Amino acid sequence: MKKHTIFFALTGSLFVMATVLMSQTTKPAATKPAAAKPASAAPGGMAASLARGKQVYLEQCLACHQADALGVSGMNPPLVKTKFVLGDKNTLVKIVLNGMKGIEVEGEDYHGVMAPHSDLTDQQIADVLTYVRNSFGNKAVAVKASEVKAIRAANKP
Fold this sequence. Notes:
By secondary structure, the protein is mainly α. About 50% of the residues lie in helices and about 10% in strands. The longest helix is centred in the N-terminal third of the chain and has 23 residues, at about 1-25. It is globular, with a radius of gyration of 18 Å. Residues about 5-30 and about 30-40 have low confidence and may be disordered.
């Protein structure tokens, strides 16, 4: 009987600790582009976009795709030099907005579920995708907030 009591006490403690830690995470603060800049330009330029994108990645993507962006075998796909990351920006934006379940990447099946991140602003999505497309050995064209805005508008049911 004592073993069961210890097991339930430890399980309960782990649950409480996990709940507390999860309650400490927050969504990245929304950023508003400066009024003087055109809608397609990233506020602060590429370096600022990469810095903001890294922050969004750390807060929203890291748990599933990992610090090295190699994902988790069979669960969450890698974001390193794949056609999904380096290819069509529109497809990548739609994946972030709509989420997805199951995908084949470079011949390997991944069965994890990615929740939609439509709660992120257009700028946050543009920044995080620009960060991913230009980090971890990737090199691709930046994603603009105006592109995300157009895709989001066309994506509404």
